[in-house]
Amino acid sequence: MNRFLLVCLCFCLTSCSSFGFDSPDMSMSKFFRIFGIKQSPKNISEFDKADRILVLKEERWLKLLDSNGEVIRSYKIALGANPVGKKRFEGDNKTPEGIYHVANKNPYSRYHLSLLVSYPNKKDRKYAKKYGKSPGGEIMIHGLENKSGLKGYFKHLMNDNWTAGCIAVDDKEMDEIWRLVDTGTKIEIRP
């Protein structure tokens, strides 16, 4: 019910130019700023880069950390359709847990930009092999599905478990993450 009310509020606000929502491509970070929800404890310059990505699955947060471990930015996230527990096999719709890194940046993704997570690692492959299964792969941090428009945005708002195991944010947030994260950046995904 609370999520429904939030979606209704967001929909109403998207039509109010006095709030600065010029298009249906409204970002959650803008929503947080308007309603005074503290999202980011640190100002960043155009030259800053994240040293590490921390994903807190249960809380549905992705945090970009600097070299001192301070939070640069925080984003609400959507996860796999079966979010509890670590990813073990292809098709389980779970999001991995453990230590990984950004293996690649893909500007031509099916989703608005994507960062490839280095899943599966050696331990993940060994576990899946023990059961005669594939560990899966193609786990990414990404924006909304391309050309999904307002429908994709509301799907993201209303359902925090809509991916096939990836970690999703809205497109404007993904633009910011893309700028702040380099290939090789460490990713820690916690339960």
Topology overview:
Elements: H1 2-14, H2 28-34, E1 52-56, E2 61-65, E3 71-76, E4 98-106, E5 114-117, H3 122-130, E6 140-142, H4 149-158, E7 167-168, H5 171-180, E8 186-190
Parallel strand pairs: 1-8, 6-7
Antiparallel strand pairs: 1-2, 2-3, 4-5, 4-8, 5-6
Strands side by side in the biggest sheet: 3-2-1-8-4-5-6-7
Name the helicity range. Answer: 25-40%
Unreliable stretches: 12-41
Task: Tell me the β content.
Answer: 15-25%
Sheet of most strands:
8 strands, mixed
Q: What do you see in this structure?
A:
The protein has 191 residues and is α+β, with helices and mostly antiparallel strands. It is built from five helices and eight strands, in the order H-H-E-E-E-E-E-H-E-H-E-H-E. It has helices at 2-14, 28-34, 122-130, 149-158, 171-180; strands spanning 52-56, 61-65, 71-76, 98-106, 114-117, 140-142, 167-168, 186-190. An eight-stranded mixed sheet has the order 3-2-1-8-4-5-6-7, with helices on one face. Strand 4 (98-106) and strand 5 form a beta hairpin.
